[in-house]
């Protein structure tokens, strides 16, 4: 979650590089899917979250830009937008997220 009180509490107690990892450790269950997004693939807090997901037995998907960075290598499935322009990568990510949400909704609705 990006809930400001959760992020602030974890950041103050454990460091901001752990804001996602701590949440995955608390809420993630084996077989869940951890979905990480970074335009550079170098965001330390997002990478730590995906590493926590691996330790917890979660499936790991990364939506990345540029060369995918460490985040792409930490994922089981990487969807990479190989472009250096952050706005272009974000535009493609936004479109991909809409498509993914639609596919999940269709699957759940039967």
UniProtKB/TrEMBL annotation:
One of its GO terms (biological process) is carbohydrate derivative metabolic process. GO terms for molecular function: carbohydrate derivative binding. Residues 1-110 form the SIS domain. InterPro entries: GmhA/DiaA, SIS_dom, SIS_dom_sf, SIS_GmhA/DiaA_subfam. PROSITE patterns: SIS. This is SIS domain-containing protein. It comes from marine metagenome.
């Amino acid at each position: 979650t990006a809930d400001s009180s959760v992020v602030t509490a974890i950041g103050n107690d454990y460091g901001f590089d752990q804001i996602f990892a701590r949440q995955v450790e608390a809420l993630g269950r084996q077989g869940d899917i951890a979905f990480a997004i970074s335009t550079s693939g170098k965001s330390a807090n997002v990478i730590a979250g995906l590493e926590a997901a691996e330790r917890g037995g979660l499936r790991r998907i990364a939506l990345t830009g540029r060369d995918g960075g460490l985040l792409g290598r930490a994922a089981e499935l990487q969807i990479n937008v190989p472009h250096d322009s952050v706005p272009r990568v974000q535009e493609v990510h936004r479109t991909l997220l809409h498509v993914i949400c639609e596919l999940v909704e269709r699957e759940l609705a039967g």
